[in-house]
Amino acid sequence: MLSEAREFKQRVDAYxxxxxxGESAQLLQVxxxxxxxxxxxxxxxxxxxxxxxxxxYWGWRAAGQPDCDGIIRAAAxxxxxxxxxxxxxxxxxxxxxxxxxxxxxVAFAGAGLGRGSPAAWSEGEGQCRDQxxxxxxxxxxxxxxxxxxxxxxxxLPGAFVAxxxxxxxxLLRETVAGQFLEVLRTGGAVPxxxxxxxxxxxxxxxxxxxxxxxxxxxxxxxxxxxxxxxTDYGLPLGEAFQLRDDLLGTFGNPDVTGKSNLDDLRDxxxxxxxxLTVSLVSDDDRQILAKTVGRPDLDEADAARVRDLMVDxxxxxxxxxxxxxxxxxxxxxxxxxPMPRTAHNALRDLATASVDRPL
Amino acid sequence: MLSEAREFKQRVDAYxxxxxxGESAQLLQVxxxxxxxxxxxxxxxxxxxxxxxxxxYWGWRAAGQPDCDGIIRAAAxxxxxxxxxxxxxxxxxxxxxxxxxxxxxVAFAGAGLGRGSPAAWSEGEGQCRDQxxxxxxxxxxxxxxxxxxxxxxxxLPGAFVAxxxxxxxxLLRETVAGQFLEVLRTGGAVPxxxxxxxxxxxxxxxxxxxxxxxxxxxxxxxxxxxxxxxTDYGLPLGEAFQLRDDLLGTFGNPDVTGKSNLDDLRDxxxxxxxxLTVSLVSDDDRQILAKTVGRPDLDEADAARVRDLMVDxxxxxxxxxxxxxxxxxxxxxxxxxPMPRTAHNALRDLATASVDRPL
Lengths: 359, 359
Fold this sequence. Notes:
2 copies of one chain form a homodimer. The first copy, chain A, is mainly alpha-helical and about 350 residues long. In chain A, about 75% of the residues lie in helices and about 0% in strands. Chain A has 2 domains: about 1-45 and about 70-120 and about 130-155, Orthogonal Bundle (Farnesyl Diphosphate Synthase), CATH 1.10.600; about 155-359, Farnesyl Diphosphate Synthase, CATH 1.10.600.
């Protein structure tokens, strides 16, 4: 099983790297000045766990369909959506690092792009527009454009693709909706657990697990019953995934997770972890949180204090419990759903791997 | 002819308004908090000249195909790409007004959504703390997602759509490339006319005229000769369109154009108009330009001084001449290309209407 999972990831990786190379060649025909865009395009497509691709692929296999190249390309399209979402998300969150590499807007800034050259004819020091972020926004737009194209031309029969188009729209709509709600609530009023989980449902559970599975099932002509079963599996698993992400975002070791463990706190991200902490601490400690969380200059010592509060009040342990409960729900839904054994085993292992990520 | 053009616009408008209503209903099922997103979605889809849709439609008709609902939807997809591009472009340019209405990020800020001011996309090193801009970025992503879907499911035969997918990718790639190059060069080194026209070729000429025509021709199974003819028509016409846009962006009456006549100057946009002006003025006047253009606090008096320089040095008149030359080239290419008379007349009138926009 493990080797099949590894082989799947390699095939998706190979397709996406090939796409990046082909597109880069086209972009460089437009202008050599687009080399930094090509470099970031390649970077955006060579990283990632390929989880969303895997859920789509195993949805297809669960529907009884055989492995083929077309489904690999359809799965890769999910990764293009994700790559686009990550680039835009990193701009919004002001994230500096992803997968241990500078994020696109940081890389563009580091390459000295878009700030005006020393020979600038306009000495507009007062310019406050963030051009590196604008360049990264363009990269995300390009990736999003490719996503729809790769999915539409994946090579599976046209009738298969045609019956999934409403779902593809749904996936985009829900993902944007979840992200929109998160931005609305970030740095705003005191977060509530129910609201955090609502954002997680749209931004992560549906987008990362349920909808990719549904896309695979629908491409493969699977039953309504299978779709329902994957909702029962996907939503709790996706919430567990987000809750683990929240823990990693504050308690993770950046060398292991490849991303900052300060950004969520600096942004005042309304995670369930934070909502629980706010609800469990004393009034005095809540004052400390209010003064610390959401400050762009929050430092390591501030973070350490917040982490201590999260542990001491029991919020961290409670989030761990929520993860365990949700993983169990997902595995139970999976166990009671008939499907080919290889798909069943793959989805069981994917569930565990999604949630048991090292801090 | 005029009434046919008006009827075409009404059909595209009706389709897009219907789409906005359907999608809004779906978004509100997710959360009532998405009402402002729905409002901006509707706003983004109820405005515009529908030029890009018209070029796609008349490319189809030029290929000898009959009017039908499928081609209206394919044409509307071009407007979705454009709506997405406008929303993101307005963030990048810090534009406050489009079509006489607040731009999306300004509207979100005005509705008190999120922190941050619309004038500042960023407050710090690579960080976007401008939540209204983040919300607008999501709106653009949603529109871009719809675009691919509407095109793929326009209702024309699958084989027709399938043969246009490489072109659709090309359109996205060239548009992003043009925008990327423009951002790289904005507020940077002294603009050169050739570079301005290169940006205009990708950002406007191909995207607004040539590629929509090619999409329509390819959907309709038109000849390679027709594609070439539309390159000869589209590129000069698109450049003329951009040159007119540059004039409107500085000399236009905001009450007529629906947009600011200060933004291009404040952003230090490397337009051909500005490049010509810089090359034609005296050294002293070039100093004045260097101190004025690209300043976010450039005011009406500064703008008036720059406008006077543009007129006095002959740059404005030269740009007018460039427009006339390019329009003539386009009309000549059209005149020598065999196609049904209705298509010919429509494209002749569209060329004039694209370029003869009132100041």
